[in-house]
User: Which sequence fits this backbone?
């Protein structure tokens, strides 16, 4: 009988240890496919950090009877390379538990570094792990979570890794977005918060539209931090001809979130999100990211969503098949990068959560000391989308930011294969089409993309109706390496896309090589296309040898 009792005790201890190991071990988050309606850049794709989305809860702490074990778990959690060393983010179940902690914090073995009162969250530096462990065990019922303060940072400049030529946008951003009209009034009445390194004053941000909000880091950083923040702000709302933004009449609320090391973190970004929402902004731009997240950032995003504020974030510059956080969150408008021709740039991250792509290669914008520079990265693409949201809102009174995102997604140029895909999301922002969406006379049939499908050994030519009239009787002329043919195009209702697939010569496939593809749309008699420039397309497709 005694032996059976000892076995039961050993099994119970083993079960408790497995439970603790499960809840204190970081787990990879599942990617979530965004809904079409609406629902950043850190380490390299080759050596990504693990995705950290779980937090020890108050229940977990209550079940941890061994303080030494808890000290070891905390020490491991709060000291690895992807976090601010010895910092913890404390999430409380309610405001009462939060206030009780603040009252006893001086005796809890920690130093309080920051607070987010609306979310009942505190940022602390652990001074004595044993004392802190005793605090957690003694007051476990107050805690909703204990997390490391994971890094979120400005992306490194993307590397050139493409075998295909990519075309810089330079000072032609508006043309790349399909804008041919005066945009000087776009964005009026809308404020975009730029969470970055802090924008410096510049002529293109003049007119009293640039304001600052200090969350404890000052208004601006130094060197590249502020240059990055200034470039981002100018792309969203610059007025000068040499640094023109998408919505020149929009207000900019600059919030510095980078510390002296040039990095930010989950707590600081969340703190800035809450501050921006409370300041009354409609759009928040975050041209930063990291491959880890936590409950604190999740709650900050939820706070913005609950208040009707849209967050736009950069997908990342690592040529990776997943997005950085916060762009990876399906509630955030994630943005990838294309060049001046609408082709995805080589560095832009891809993933099923991607919402939109926008110009992000060699765009002329503002830098430091009144200088102009060419800026590349999904850091550039994100504020282009933020500015586009502001433009749509200002031109349609009463439209919410989320509704404006829906407009951009349903009036985007179809990149890659027909329909949404991981490289282009719902498509490339076409602000000219989005702003003219209510024009019943608009007629525009476009050659949207040319791609090669290795699985079927076919070329896919995507044709899209970007007008308000149906397209019938269209013909496609296609020339592949000098071999020409003509093909009938199925009827295209407004907004629809169709793919014409052409087989590739097996001999060319066997040795690999280049496909020079020239395509042209032929309109039926009486159909006058208002944008004939997109009726012709030339592409060079590089085939890997089989």
Assistant:
């Amino acid at each position: 009988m005694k032996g059976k009792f000892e076995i039961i005790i050993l099994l119970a201890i083993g079960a408790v240890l497995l439970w603790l190991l499960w809840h204190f071990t970081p787990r990879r988050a599942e990617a979530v496919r965004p809904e079409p309606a609406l629902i950043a850049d850190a380490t390299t794709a080759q050596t990504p950090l693990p995705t950290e989305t779980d937090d020890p809860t108050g229940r977990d702490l209550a079940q941890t009877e061994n303080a030494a074990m808890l000290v070891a778990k905390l020490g491991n959690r709060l000291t690895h390379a992807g976090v601010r060393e010895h910092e913890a983010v404390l999430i409380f179940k309610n405001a009462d538990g939060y206030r009780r902690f603040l009252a006893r914090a001086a005796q809890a073995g920690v130093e309080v570094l920051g607070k987010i009162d609306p979310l009942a969250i505190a940022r602390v530096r652990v001074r004595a792990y044993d004392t802190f462990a005793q605090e957690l065990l003694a007051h476990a019922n107050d805690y909703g979570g204990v997390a490391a303060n994971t890094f979120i940072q400005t992306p490194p400049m993307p590397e050139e890794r493409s075998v295909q030529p990519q075309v810089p946008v330079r000072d032609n951003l508006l043309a790349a977005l399909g804008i041919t009209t005066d945009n000087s009034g776009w964005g009026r009445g809308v404020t975009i918060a730029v969470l970055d390194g802090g924008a410096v004053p510049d002529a293109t941000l003049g007119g009293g539209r640039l304001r600052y909000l200090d969350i404890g880091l000052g208004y601006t950083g130094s060197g590249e931090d502020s240059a990055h923040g200034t470039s981002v702000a100018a792309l969203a709302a610059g007025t000068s001809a040499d640094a023109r933004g998408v919505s020149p009449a929009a207000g900019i609320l600059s919030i510095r979130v980078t510390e002296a090391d040039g990095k930010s973190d989950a707590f600081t970004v969340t703190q800035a999100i809450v501050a921006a929402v409370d300041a009354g902004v409609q759009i928040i731009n975050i041209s930063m990211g990291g491959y880890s997240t936590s409950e604190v950032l999740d709650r900050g995003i939820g706070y913005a969503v609950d208040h009707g504020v849209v967050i736009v974030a950069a997908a990342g510059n690592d040529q990776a098949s997943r997005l950085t956080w916060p762009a990876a969150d399906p509630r955030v408008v994630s943005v990838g990068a294309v060049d001046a021709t609408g082709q995805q740039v080589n560095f832009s991250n891809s993933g099923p959560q991607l919402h939109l792509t926008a110009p992000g290669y060699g765009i002329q914008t503002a830098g430091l000391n009144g200088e102009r520079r060419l800026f590349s990265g999904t850091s550039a693409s994100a504020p282009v989308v933020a500015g586009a949201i502001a433009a749509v809102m200002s031109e349609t009174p009463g439209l919410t930011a989320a509704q404006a995102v829906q407009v951009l997604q349903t009036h985007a140029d179809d990149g890659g294969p027909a329909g949404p895909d991981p490289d282009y999301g719902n498509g490339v922002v076409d602000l000219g089409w989005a702003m003219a969406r209510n024009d019943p006379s608009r007629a525009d049939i476009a050659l949207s993309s040319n791609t090669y499908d290795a699985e079927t050994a076919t070329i896919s030519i995507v044709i899209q109706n970007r007008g308000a009239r149906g397209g019938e009787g269209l013909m496609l002329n296609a020339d592949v390496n000098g071999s020409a043919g003509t093909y009938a195009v199925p009827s295209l209702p407004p907004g629809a896309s169709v793919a014409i697939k052409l087989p590739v010569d097996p001999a060319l496939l066997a040795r690999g090589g280049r496909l020079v593809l020239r395509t042209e749309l032929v309109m039926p008699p009486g159909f006058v296309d208002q944008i004939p420039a997109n009726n012709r397309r030339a592409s060079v497709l590089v085939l890997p040898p089989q």
